[in-house]
């Protein structure tokens, strides 16, 4: 008997004796922890800065991060290993985890900002002390590869963390204002793309595209598409039942984007969500060769058939003035107007 026939007969045999359920490949339900909300920040607080993913390319990355936070009125504490390098990573796994744990342990530190994203966060997830995180809830913000931490924190501890700018992002006056409204005022934000048209007769930029109309309420969860699809089947991905999923991506060809959406579909995630928002696919490109799918094809193939409120074009992802989205709070999303509205405060 060859290997293929052996495995096939083994699978059917195990099903017949009840060792494998008939829907053995369906996503197993998992229960998220109850929401754990950090406290608001105030001027004079100490903010820790760390690099839990990719290596920093220059001292300016730290300088700019410090200047942003100090202008917002904070004191800044750097991670011990923030300047370390291990290949393309900002230090070894042990060094990056040490900085992460130290910032949560430190009672002086009230919030944590990641200097940049990059790669490497997924290497840390099975070594993080989640009991330490749960015992010391703090404001934590980043995006891109930091998605892995946002989702793992929420699933393992219930911590509400924030998908938003990193230290090396371009901080406009508007972004700084939104930061203060979220973290100082604990405001119930309503996220919508700017309506400015400039000198043009109609708006050409920052347009939203309704994939399927309607309004829906649910728990907001999401982040970088590569990270979410890469965590499928792991112990670090939240339950997506009754959630509004948001995703963004950068520097990928549409063949890979299609493969990632296929992973979300085949893993059962897309069949459980109540709403969907696609942010920006920054610098994404066609597959080289005879022809290529584009983003419209992919969203029409995977999202429109769900018949749930969904839109694309939100200011989420690798772009300036992106939304600061709390992961794990209840929101109302309107796919016709392109808005996400908080229904509960993100801070305690």
What can you see in these coordinates?
This protein is α/β, with parallel strands linked by helices and 348 residues long. The chain is 27% helix and 20% strand. It has 9 helices and 14 strands. An 8-stranded mixed β-sheet has the order 6-14-13-8-9-10-11-7. Strands 2-1-3-4-5-12 form a 6-stranded mixed β-sheet, sandwiched between helices. It is globular and about 50 Å long. The termini are far apart.
List the topology elements.
Layout: H1 3-16, E1 46-50, H2 59-71, E2 75-78, H3 93-105, E3 109-114, H4 130-135, E4 139-142, H5 147-157, E5 161-163, H6 173-183, E6 190-192, E7 209-212, E8 215-224, H7 225-230, E9 243-250, H8 254-266, E10 275-282, H9 295-302, E11 310-312, E12 325-327, E13 330-334, E14 339-342
Parallel strand pairs: 1-2, 1-3, 3-4, 4-5, 8-9, 9-10, 10-11
Antiparallel strand pairs: 5-12, 6-14, 7-11, 8-13, 13-14
The percentage of residues in β strands lies in: 15-25%
| Low-confidence blocks of residues | 1-29
Order of helices and strands: HEHEHEHEHEHEEEHEHEHEEEE
Question: Could you tell me the number of beta strands?
Answer: 14
Q: Kindly state the mean pLDDT as a whole number?
A: 91
Main beta sheet strand tally, sense and closure: 8 strands, mixed
Distance between the termini: 62 Å
Helicity range: 25-40%
Radius of gyration: 21 Å
Query: What would you call the structural class?
Result: alpha/beta
Tertiary shape: globular
Number of H/I helices: 9
């Amino acid at each position: 008997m060859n290997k293929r026939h052996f495995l096939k007969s083994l699978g059917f045999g195990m099903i017949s004796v009840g060792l494998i359920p008939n829907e053995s490949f369906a996503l197993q339900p998992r229960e998220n922890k109850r929401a754990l909300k950090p406290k608001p920040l105030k001027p004079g607080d100490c903010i820790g800065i760390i690099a839990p993913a990719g290596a920093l390319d220059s001292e300016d990355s730290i300088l700019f991060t410090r200047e942003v936070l100090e202008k917002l009125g904070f004191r800044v504490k750097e991670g011990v290993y923030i300047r370390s390098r291990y290949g393309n990573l900002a230090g070894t796994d042990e060094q990056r985890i040490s900085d992460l744990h130290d910032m949560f342990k430190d009672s002086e530190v009230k919030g944590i900002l990641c200097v940049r994203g990059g790669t490497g966060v997924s290497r840390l997830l099975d070594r993080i002390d989640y009991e330490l995180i749960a015992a010391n809830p703090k404001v934590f913000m980043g995006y891109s590869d930091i998605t892995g931490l946002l989702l793992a924190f929420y699933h393992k501890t219930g911590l509400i963390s924030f998908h938003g700018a990193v230290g090396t992002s371009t901080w406009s006056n508007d972004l700084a204002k939104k930061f203060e409204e979220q973290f100082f005022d604990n405001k119930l934000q309503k996220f919508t793309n700017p309506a400015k048209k400039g000198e043009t007769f109609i708006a050409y930029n920052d347009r939203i595209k309704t994939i399927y109309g309607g309004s829906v309420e649910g728990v907001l969860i999401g982040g970088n598409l590569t990270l979410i699809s890469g965590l499928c089947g792991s112990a670090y991905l939240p339950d997506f039942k009754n959630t509004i999923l948001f995703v963004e991506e950068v520097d990928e060809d549409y063949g890979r984007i299609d493969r990632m959406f296929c992973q979300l579909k085949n893993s059962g995630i897309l069949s459980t969500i109540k709403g969907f928002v696609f942010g920006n696919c920054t610098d994404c490109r066609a597959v080289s060769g005879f022809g290529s799918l584009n983003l419209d094809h992919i969203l029409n193939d995977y999202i429109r058939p769900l018949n749930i409120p969904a839109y694309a074009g939100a200011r989420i992802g690798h772009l300036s003035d992106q939304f600061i989205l709390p992961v794990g709070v209840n929101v109302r999303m309107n796919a016709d107007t392109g808005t996400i509205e908080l229904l509960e405060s993100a801070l305690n």
